[in-house]
Amino acid sequence: MKAGAAIAGYSRRAGLDPAIVGLVAFFAIHMLIRLFGTSNFSVDDTEAAVHVQVFQLYYSLRNPPLFDWLFYGLIQVTGLSVFTIQILKTALMTGAAVFFYLALRPGFRHRAALTAALASYGATAFYGWDIFQQFSHTVTLIFAMGFTFWALMRVVRAPQTIDYVFLGIGLGMGLLSKYLFALYFLALLVAAIRRPAYRPAILSARMGLTLVAGLVVVSPLLIGLWEARDALLGTLGGRVAGASSGPGLESFGFLILLTAEFWLPFAVILGIALARWPASAPAAETTAAASEGDGDANLYPLLRDATVIMVAAMFFAFFFLGTRIEGGRYLVVMFSLLPAAVFAGLDRRPSFPQIAMERFFQGAIGFVVIIAVFRFATFLFLSPPFCLPRCVLFVDYAPVAAKIGTPDGKQNVILSNHVHIGSNLLRLVPNAKVVIDAYTAGSDLGIAPPAERNCYFVWFRNYRSVDELPLETALRQALRRDPLPSELAAIGPIEFATVDWQTKILRSHGPDTVVGIARIDSAERICDGGRIPGLSPPPSNNSMQ
């Protein structure tokens, strides 16, 4: 039976769209793998966990606050835990995929091409692997991209006034996720204007509603950033224009490797499918490619042009502005539409490669399953000593929390030099507040008066190394300045906790991590996040409090 006919038949019998069921299952399974692996926060999640001790209009100049806002709201209901943050991420990624699918579905003629396009994202390195390993703000960015594309396609196909409002909401959410979203939005608008069928809807006066809605959504951030506008412009300028005067051969090679990593698995599977089963294959190897409708002939040019605009902008910024492309997260915007564009183009071919689409879908699903099994195995067998992802993810902080927890009902204030320590102690230590200058500077954390708190400094004394980190050096890292003699004198008894790994099978690898826990005089200024003018770096956050 043809893959497209089988899917359509299942959909009629079950009353569900199997594509949506598959998308939900894909993200839910990866969430379960993550929850099985460790109860610790992932590397990017640690920053969010420390930030959301208090609600703020913005938390850092580097990243807009939408993910932090959503995380803060959810922990008021479910509490601070890895489960909470994984539920949030899974909901956002699933929502992004569903909105993207709903936007694509009317534009395809052949169901086989549509389902292959969806599967192709799981066969990319970023969406199939990287997105589950870390990332927080990028997850809200992906949701905003999916929602905005859905809203845009509603606007250009049969616009209602509410659709322009939806598009503005998408614009606001995108800017609240990552500032790079502006490039994605502009590329979509320019690509849509290039299509005569879409142009009237884009040039309509109702686009003013989009701008108003976007401004309303992003206004809380604008209010919070107003006093820090000069620093924000400097930060954005520094990220767009690199520190070097021009790109070097090494950085260009790194960009090419990142680009190849993004699309390589999906391109290999597609290349094999098209080479083995072209549309012009002998009759014995072909099937009739019945279309499900006329689709939308403008979809492929829109996706193609928007992708070209974004990739051209990336290389222009790299070569002429010296912009540093530091990781795969910076490519997610530029290549987010590329897989769909490839299959939208194949869908419009007069000679449709039906078998190739079916075989690609099968190959992509096989790749997705292999990656899911490998992720499960990395948690079960390979971490540590090989650590995929980073080893710090598997440190067992329970012995540290046991030494800090007190029965007197006082607040536990924890000063640390490492955000992974601080964030995970937040979920383990009762009534805790964590102070890490690089993340909490300028925030009113609601720290209790000296008589109502216990204060500790916690740091990695040894971490996978024979070299010991002295207390004074660790305190310097935590404060981002040299500690004063009075602050060193306020350090009381020091205990050390030798901690093991959470990994279930390879605990015999050895407990090579030692955490230092130093009691601090609760009256000391550093226990309430106090900063010393002229010594402490300027705060990077503004609190509502």
Chain-wise SSE layout:
Layout (H helix, E strand, L loop, with lengths): L2 H12 L3 H20 L5 H9 L14 H13 L3 H23 L6 H12 L2 H9 L3 H21 L3 H15 L5 H13 L5 H4 L4 H19 L3 H12 L8 H28 L22 H23 L16 H10 L6 H29 L15 H7 L6 E6 L2 H10 L3 E4 L1 H4 L12 E11 L7 H9 L5 H5 L1 E9 L13 E8 L25
Parallel strand pairs: 1-2, 1-3
Antiparallel strand pairs: 3-5, 4-5
Helix pairs in contact: 2-5, 2-17, 3-19, 5-8, 6-16, 6-17, 8-9, 8-10, 9-12, 10-15, 14-17, 15-16
Kindly describe this structure.
The chain is α/β, with parallel strands linked by helices. Helices cover 56% and strands 7% of the residues. It has 22 helices and 5 strands. β1, α19 (419-428) and β2 (432-435) form a beta-alpha-beta unit. α6 (111-122) runs antiparallel to α16 and α8 packs parallel to α10 (181-193). The longest helix is centred in the C-terminal third of the chain and has 29 residues, at 354-382.
Low-confidence stretches: 283-288, 541-545
Strand content: 5-15%
Distance between the termini: 63 Å
| Helix/strand order, N-terminal first | HHHHHHHHHHHHHHHHHHEHEHEHHEE
**Per the principal axes of the C-alpha atoms, what is the gross shape?**
globular
User: Which structural class do the helices and strands define?
Assistant: alpha/beta
Cα gyration radius (Å): 26 Å
Helix content: 55-70%
Mean pLDDT: 86
Q: Give the biggest sheet.
A: 5 strands, mixed
Tally of extended strands? 5
The helix tally amounts to 22
Question: What kind of oligomer do you see?
Answer: single chain
Largest sheet, order of strands side by side? 2-1-3-5-4
